[in-house]
Amino acid sequence: MALMTIRTFATTLLATAAFTLSLPGAHAEEQGPINRAWNDTRSTTTNAWDKTKQGTAKTWDRTKEGSEKAWNKTENGTSEAWDKTKQGTAKTWDRTKEGSEKAWDKTKNGTSEAWDKTKEGTNHAWNKTKNGTEEAADSTKNWSKRTGKKIGNWGKEAGQDISNTFSGNSK
Predict the structure, then answer these.
(1) Is the CA virtual torsion 86, 88, 91, 96 positive or negative?
(2) CA 114 to CA 106: how far, in whole Å?
(3) Which regions of the chain are under pLDDT 70?
(4) d(CA 132, CA 126)
(5) Alpha carbon 25 to its chain's center
(6) What's the farthest any 2 CA atoms get from each other in the chain?
(7) DSSP state, residue 27
(8) Residues in Cβ contact with 52 at an 8 Å cutoff, skipping those fewer than 6 apart
(9) How far is it, in rounded angstroms, from Cα 49 to Cα 54?
(10) Which of 18, 26, 87, 135 has its CA 20 to 30 A from that of 119?
């Protein structure tokens, strides 16, 4: 709308200028009609300019008012969106925090249980190894004694057999 008012003003101004320039040059004694034409043109131009200013001012006021309304809507909408986002983020953080704490507790408890089982299994394995080693040592010691006796007995028997063979006392 303001563009149309500016065009109207510009057209009026150009027409007035063209009209004024088209008037024949006046001598000093013929200034009356030119002055009247100029004064009429000037008052018409002034009236057109005043209307243009008023229309432009009204258009500006409406534009400004619309811009302010649009800004207020945007500002309110943005504030509401931020409040919702903030609330959602806090809820999400609380759930994430709770989930992390639960996962940590499970991990901590699971690790303790696993350690207890491992420690118990290690102690049990150590005791079996220790007992098996002691049993093996005792068995080896006893085997050595038994073997030594058998070798000793075998040595006596072998010696007698050899002696009997050479002496002729074979049985």
Answers:
(1) negative
(2) 12
(3) 1-4, 21-32, 144, 147-171
(4) 10
(5) 81
(6) 193
(7) -
(8) 5, 6, 8, 9
(9) 9
(10) 135
Indicate the angle between helix axes 2-22 and 31-167, nearest 10 degrees.
Answer: 140
User: By the 8 A CB rule, do 28 and 11 touch?
Assistant: no
Tokens of 164: 């009997």
Q: How far apart are CA 1 and CA 59, in angstroms?
A: 7
Tens-place pLDDT, residues 47-86: 888 888 888 888 888 888 888 888 888 888 888 888 888 8
Region for 78 from its dihedrals, namely left if φ exceeds 0, alpha if ψ lies in -120 to 50, beta otherwise = alpha
Paired tokens of 12 = 């009026």
Residue 56 and residue 6 in contact, taking contact as beta carbons nearer than 8 Å = yes
Q: Read off the tokens for 110.
A: 């699971």
